[in-house]
Design goal:
The protein is an alpha+beta fold. The protein contains 6 helices and 7 strands; from the N terminus they run H-H-H-E-E-E-E-E-H-H-E-E-H. The strands form 2 sheets. Strands 1, 2, 3, 4 and 5 form a 5-stranded antiparallel beta sheet that branches.
Length: 288
């Protein structure tokens, strides 16, 4: 794994993406949130939220570990050709010495390339991200053959420490370039937040002014007194059904002391009733 690699994007790209996220956040706030809250509190909150923590290595807290390994060493005689039977590499007994260095800060910065850099290898064997409650770690490895370790003699620790410092010096130097860009970003962040909030507040103020002119009530902050009109209930209208047809109604008539009944629509009256009706000079008629 390589740190400060160009394939992971630049530090400036990462910082620009932070500003873009800040703009989206401010744009997402409602007019009520912007107008009914303390402006300076918004500035302080957003500045802290979008600050980027620079990288700090704690070299004095570095821990070392030793592991046996097999090291491939190039055989210069292999260039003579396969006819001589010389392998390209020799496998030699050796040791890996791992240096685990804790750091604090935004882990993403270690993967981004700063605007100022050198064409140096930043190879590491392990990487652990930092969190709000714990440090991150990078692990740098130095490898030596058994023969090389023995050749250091009594200066073994001094030789190894010097080699580590020379190797780590490149990481410290490049992280310094990263932090320069971060420092510039953080110094300008509060003014950037204030400018973006002012733009959003002006937009909200225009909306409030137009709403007031049109006498359109606004939704207040949830903590504000409820001054909105009570909504009117919609009049209830019963479902109307088509009228149903009823059975024919029976009706009764008295003619000259005689009691007869007639059903409507008109039905033929019994013959004896007709006689009686004629006899009493009674005539009944109805149009259906």
């Amino acid at each position: 794994m390589k740190l400060f690699a160009i394939g992971n994007g630049s530090v400036s790209d990462y910082l620009r993406s932070n500003i873009s996220s800040l703009k989206d956040k401010i744009a997402s706030y409602t007019d009520e949130q912007i107008m009914n809250s303390d402006f300076d509190e918004w500035v302080e909150y957003l500045t802290k939220k979008y600050q980027v923590e620079p990288i700090t290595f704690f070299v004095n807290a570095t821990t070392r570990s030793l592991h046996e390994t097999t090291i491939q060493q190039y055989n210069p005689w292999s260039r003579m050709g396969s006819a001589y039977g010389e392998p390209e590499y020799y496998n030699l007994d050796g040791y890996n010495i791992d240096f685990k260095i804790p750091f604090a800060g935004d882990s993403i910065l270690l993967k981004c390339q700063p605007s100022t850099y050198t064409f140096t290898s930043y190879e590491i064997v392990d990487f652990q991200r930092s969190t709000e409650s714990s440090y991150g770690y990078i692990t740098i490895r130095l490898s030596y053959t058994n023969q090389e370790i023995k050749s250091f003699g009594e200066q073994l620790e001094e030789k190894i420490d010097t080699a580590f410092k020379n190797r780590f010096k490149n990481f410290e130097e490049t992280s310094g370039y990263v932090n320069n860009e971060v420092r510039s970003y953080n110094e300008q962040l509060e003014s950037t937040v204030r400018q973006l909030l002012n733009e959003r507040k002006n937009k909200a103020s225009d909306f409030f002014s137009i709403s007031k002119a049109l006498k359109i009530p606004l939704n207040l902050n949830s903590s504000a007194p409820n001054l909105t009109p009570i909504p009117l209930k919609k009049p209830h209208r019963a479902n109307l059904n088509e009228p149903k047809q009823h059975a024919p109604e029976k009706q009764y008539y008295t003619l000259s002391g005689l009691f007869i009944y007639v059903e409507w629509p008109w039905k033929k009256v019994p013959e004896h009733s007709t006689v009686l009706m004629k006899k009493n000079y009674a005539i009944i008629s109805r149009e259906c």
